[in-house]
Amino acid sequence: MENNPNMEGIQVPGRPIREGIAGIAAEEETSGNVKERVPMLPALTADWVLFLLCWPFGALVSALRRLGMPGAKTVIFLFCLYFGFVFIYGDPYRDKTTDSARYAMQLIEMRAHPVSLPQLVSLLYKPKTDLLDVYQPLVTWLVSLFTGDPRFLFAVYAAIFGLFWAQNIWLIFTRIGPPAGLTILLFLGAFALINPVWNINGVRMWTAAQMYIYGVLLWFLDGKRSGLLWSSLSLLVHFSFAFPVVLFLMYLIVPDNLFLLLLFFLGSSLVKEIDLQSVRESLDYLPDIFKARLEGYTSENYARDLAKEVMEMPMYVQVSEWVAKAVVYLWVVALYFTHHHWDPGEPGLRRFFGFTLFLGGFVQIVSLIPSGPRFIIISHALFYVVFILVLARVPGKSSFSLIKNISVPLLLYYILYNVRMGFDFMGILTFLGNPLFAFLSSEQLPLIEFIKSLL
């Protein structure tokens, strides 16, 4: 892979400039030294394999406590594989509200009525079929060749999701080492849980998000041109990622002016309404297959339905959104006024911060369009990475003390909220089961329902 000449790797004091994982295959030294190949999924010792087979959740907890161990990301990946197998996807015959139940039904139907690969390809990007993405139909087709059991489908979904999830966590950890302080630890937890593995309920959007973030981190943290490729591949997983991919490309020619980027980010938050009619008119330039889908997303009826759903959301859900925004705004302002104190040998970090402001500003505008708010998750995840990296470099800076104290309870709330959301898609087997028990049981009782039954 080639190094990006416009970006420099971010160096952690006391660590090699490219210590840890470096993309798909190898770490590369800019000086031309011998390449040190680091596998994406390092091999595990026999005791770890046995631990995973006996108690996957226990192995995950143990690996997280030893996150610096190279095999930790392999354990995370394999736990995700297991998690997908015991994932609560709902009743495919009765549940009409969750995406996962619909994906399960598609597998069952494809198994009952097989199609060839050429037939499947002929259905892609056709207005009548509404198949705008390659990833989900292709994976479903591959699994249907062997089984119609949705558990295997979601195991594959979770494994692919977990592959990028583990890499993203690892890319950050290898640059900071063991978290020095509660605030960094909570930000790392918030990053991991802002788009967790149970988001395979909406597998297209959130797998694409992990791929996009992986590409962005490779570009800014490792200076790898392959990062642009990985981010662009997210288009094959969810067509809407044309939006953040275009912004990524645009940023390559944007001047490095943090003041203007901060003004843009803060100013975009003041925009409270967008003309949906104008948005729909702009869709006339798109191909019919994309135009039809986006017109549905921007229709007045769809907007009213979403607004009604927002009003009916439980208070703890609304509070979580306020908390997430408050944390981001607090730290964005703090980082801007202290960025002159960052190590001048780390221009990549400054440039990365600028990108998060650039992306975040556009995301705040697009969030006014129905279905647009989900891009906030991606924006916030990248902000968290910047916050973590800066805190790891200036842990004792007094100007951060007050904001740290404010952030701790907010981040705790946000983490607990996301774990609670996961209870809708986890069962007892997630925590206490193993592959053998999972294979013999088809339990589909969400953990939250089990807890309620005990009260």
Structural features, described:
This protein is an all-alpha fold and 455 residues long. The protein has a domain at 181-422. 63% of the residues lie in helices and 1% in strands. It contains 22 helices and two strands. It has a two-stranded antiparallel sheet with strand order 1-2. A hairpin with an 8-residue loop joins strand 1 (26-27) and strand 2. Helix 4 (99-112) crosses helix 7 (150-176). The chain is globular and about 60 Å long. It starts with 25 loop residues before the first strand and ends with a helix. The model is unreliable at 1-35 (pLDDT under 50).
N-to-C SSE string, H for helix and E for strand: EEHHHHHHHHHHHHHHHHHHHHHH
Please tell me what the overall shape is: globular
Mean pLDDT: 84
Low-confidence stretches: 1-35
- The amount of helix comes to 55-70%
Number of helices: 22
Our Rg estimate from Cα atoms comes to: 22 Å
Major beta sheet, strand line-up: 1-2
Query: What can be said about the biggest beta sheet?
Result: 2 strands, antiparallel
Beta-strand proportion: under 5%
Give the structural class: mainly alpha
- The N- to C-terminal Cα distance equals 56 Å
Number of strands: 2
SSE layout and pairings?
Blueprint: E1 26-27, E2 36-37, H1 46-54, H2 56-65, H3 72-85, H4 99-112, H5 117-123, H6 135-144, H7 150-176, H8 182-194, H9 203-222, H10 226-233, H11 242-251, H12 258-268, H13 276-282, H14 288-297, H15 300-311, H16 315-338, H17 347-366, H18 375-393, H19 401-422, H20 428-432, H21 435-440, H22 447-454
Antiparallel strand pairs: 1-2
Helix pairs in contact: 1-2, 2-3, 3-7, 4-6, 4-7, 6-7, 7-9, 8-18, 8-19, 9-10, 11-17, 12-17, 16-18, 16-19, 17-18
